[in-house]
Description:
Layout (H helix, E strand, L loop, with lengths): L3 E6 L3 H12 L4 E5 L14 E2 L9 H12 L1 H12 L10 E5 L2 H17 L7 E4 H7 L9 E5 L3 E2 L2 H14 L3 E4 L5 E5 L2 E6 L2 E10 L5 H4 L10 E12 L7 E2 L2 E3 L4 E4 L14 H14 L8 E11 L6 E5 L2 E5 L7 H5 L1 H8 L4 H4 L13
Parallel strand pairs: 1-2, 1-11, 2-8, 4-13, 11-18
Antiparallel strand pairs: 3-7, 4-6, 5-6, 9-10, 10-11, 12-15, 12-16, 14-15, 17-18
Helix pairs in contact: 1-6, 3-6
Amino acid sequence: MAAVDHIVVGGGIVGAAIAYGLARAGEAVTLLDEGDVALRAARGNFGNVWVQGKGATAPDYADLTRQAAADWDDFSAALQDETGIELHFRRPGAAYICFSPEELGKRAATLAASNLKARLYSPFEVLDRATLAERLPAIGPDVAGATYCPDDGTANPLYLLRALIKAMSARGGRYLPHHTVTGLSRDGAGFAVETPQGRLSCGRIVLAAGLGNAALAPYLGLSAPVRPVRGQILVTEKLRPFLPMGTNFIRQTIEGGCIFGESSEEVGTDDGTTLPVLRETARKAVTAFPMLRDARVVRAWGALRIMTPDGVPVYQGRDGAFVVCVHSGVTLAPWHAGGIVEHLRRGAFDPQIFQSFQPERFDVQAA
């Protein structure tokens, strides 16, 4: 196949956003998607545009998150106008539900400390149970309170993915599903990408393949220290509207169904479900909102998060090759479709902007 300016490996939300941004900037881009056999993070994505607490111990990540979330209004409007796909983006704010006064106090202290370190301020409120009940009348009696952040919102992650690929393709980008990358190499001034369908060539390459980055990055002298962390999710039947904002572990979709889950398990690439975790997930949801006791569960599944050792993204680039490892693909979509693109086109990440996101931060220093 003829060489293109950029190849993006990974057809999930992160890769699709980057490919769309490159196509919008006038670059010739090809997006390679392994297909539904991939361990897609989007399968378990809540669709949260989440700010509060993100990057609590990493100020640069907090700032990146806050700016991306602020850009979501313009980003979603432009993408919807371009594709005709409604992303279901809403920003009613979100509550982080706490079940004890101690948990609530600790949560509030964490958010306050994060604001002292970050450059961009993110407002929040501490709601006692009575105040929270005024905003969420269905809240249960065993809830102590919540922190509330008006910057938080939600979107439909599957509609987002569809819109990104559609918009990229409309701008001349090429989407190649069922193209598993089996090998990578530098080829003169560019790169060669091996797939079962043949070899592709490009001037620059971006690895945004989620968990697949761990195996692909070393081909190009890059590092992707990621591991899978399983989360299990329950979805209810459609219910009357009762939850006008998102929370840290449960939200009601526009269609009426509730999605809930907050488990975190180190089980390798097993994306199945287990009864003990689902039972605990249901118990916590009913404690928060007793009305859910009678709701029927219609689906349950497991999905794998893409996690670095500290939970902060990895952005690494070297001589036209880049690796992007992120677990907040929805929140950071405006950044991946916008601000990051200028760096990819230049062939290098600005060290002043990306220094704290380098994988070398995990290296053990010699005594």
